[in-house]
Amino acid sequence: MIPQQLQRALEEDIHAAPAGQTRYLMVLIDMAGLSDAQRGRIRNDMAGRMHSLLLHPDFLALRPLGPMLVGSDDTSPKSRDALLSIAGAYDADIVQAWITSVLSPADLATHLSQACFALGKDGERYLLRYYDSLITPVLYRTADAAWVASVFAPVISWWFAGANIQHPQWHRIPGSANARCRPPSPLVLTETLWKALAGDPLPHRLLDELEQVSPDVFSTQCRGVRLAQIRSHLASANQIGLNRHDDLIAYVFTALSRPAASLQADHAWQHALQQAVAGEAPLAVTTPIPTPHNRTAR
């Protein structure tokens, strides 16, 4: 569900348009990570309002499963309310971003399609998933400032999905609201940017594995919150001195499975932690931990 605070912010963007300027509301959905049922629902809900961001001929086969900018050229309150009502009811994991722009959905899709290519140091072209809510903030912080400015030039606000350990959150990237902007050039992937985009794969591996073999350890259905919880527990594990791969996995699984107060009062668990930190017996060996049977690969 779309939070009321976010909905108010989107409406304020629209109503703040100066005389003679038209502003549009749209939502960005990546079809790649959705089930067939979810894709079918969205195509049915949003018929006639979907604009692919993969407009280059090389991406023709990927378009049905790629990112879609959803919105209407109709800027009436009734049309905006319809989009907010339909897309606002979607799970946070479906919507990558809410966007207000001075370009129509079709024109903004054309503009953003130019950002889908990135160039490596070897000159090779790569598909850049800048629209992924996990990638967007990394690029905003780390990518070439001129490239970032050109991508968001026609945008008023780009709200991307995030989460803390308790609930989903939305974060704003401000644009320039410039309707006469040039399309972005391909982003050059520097070594620093490569490393930032790669990040730490372990939280994502753990999330994928636990969702397959032990989904009941999570108290929420939101993947963003689940990922935030895993990252928080990994940070705690590193803070107390755990560094072996299997110890990290055992710690996260146990922390998700049992209340913190219970673990704090469990002398066997505390002793096992001390041994693991000292590099002695592995955490999963010295205490009975119901770890998933299909361990994450290194």
UniProtKB/TrEMBL annotation:
It holds the Pfam family DUF4123. Residues 27-145 form the DUF4123 domain. This is DUF4123 domain-containing protein. It comes from Achromobacter spanius.
